[in-house]
Amino acid sequence: MSIAPTRKCPICGKPRTAEHSPFCSTRCRDRDLVRWLDDGYALPGPPAEREDETF
User: Fold this and answer.
1) Global pTM?
2) Please, how many CA atoms are within 13 Å of residue 18, restricted to the half-sphere of its CB?
3) Structural domain harbouring 22
4) Per-residue pLDDT for the chain (55 aa), expressed as one digit of tens each?
5) What total of structural domains would you count in the chain?
């Protein structure tokens, strides 16, 4: 019987905690949220068409 490897935080690489899973701390969880809100993550795909920006 083998022991499963400890999963690591995707932001800093430290061991995860159950309280903040899949992160190790509130800090890393919040850093991930900021990346999402600032469009730091993107899914691959064709470029989106630009809409006319007339006001």
Assistant:
1) 0.64
2) 0
3) 8-38
4) 566 678 999 999 999 999 999 999 999 999 999 999 998 888 888 887 877 666 6
5) 1
